[in-house]
Amino acid sequence: MELIVWSTILKTSFVPVREHLGQQVYQHLLEKIYKMEIAPGARLGVGEIAELLGVSRSPVRDAFRMLLSEGMVELLPSGRYRVIQFNRKYVDDVFVLRRTLELTAVRLSVQHLDRERIQALHTIWEQFKVADEADPHLVEDHLSADQDLHQSIAVMSQNLLLKDALDKIIPLAGLIRRWQYSGGIPYRMLVLTAEEHLTVLDAMLARDAEGAIWALDEHLTRAYARILERLDADT
């Protein structure tokens, strides 16, 4: 889809601040991509983005370099950029890496347990089990809480290299999940996800590392299967 479709969206709420302008453009584009306001597969050009945002090309190039390193965009032979597209290979790559990293992280997290933090997460996910299906903010709150849970496990591992790796993969997994939800998500699926998370948190609170690993592995396996269902529905 051509960039002109996104021109109004890109301009919205963007006020250039000359200091750290490249970082500002990066954050602005990242937010639009993450909220699916710029859709997977959208093609973006440096010159067009610079003109739309009222900045020079240099900070836009800096922003694209950061997005490229985060895996959010890919560079095309034409020199334009394209927001990542979700296919079976991409989803497979994300979940293989995610499983490898997160199962190690949850084991370490049990060893360095922040019980107060885990209990707070447990309370949040208990509330999602009985949340009002008509709440217009339910899906957005659910997505945010999901990201918070997985990032909390990464932080609690107290392994900086592992956390750095998860800091890249968790947002990508979150972007895939947001794309999945954008096609419509049944309320029962939100409740099921809450129950899966609670099983992980219960094991962590019990300091049962093997139980937490098993529960998280089950959750990731089911999440992967649900993503594949969405992919199959689009083909």
Describe this structure as you would to a colleague:
The protein has 235 residues and is mainly alpha-helical. It has 10 helices and 3 strands, in the order ααβααββαααααα. 71% of the residues lie in helices and 3% in strands. It is globular. The longest helix has 26 residues, at 209-234. It folds into 2 domains: 3-83, Winged helix-like DNA-binding domain superfamily/Winged helix DNA-binding domain (Arc Repressor Mutant, subunit A), CATH 1.10.10; 88-234, Up-down Bundle (Four Helix Bundle (Hemerythrin (Met), subunit A)), CATH 1.20.120.530. The protein has a 3-stranded antiparallel sheet with strand order 1-3-2. α5 (88-111) crosses α8 and α6 packs antiparallel against α9.
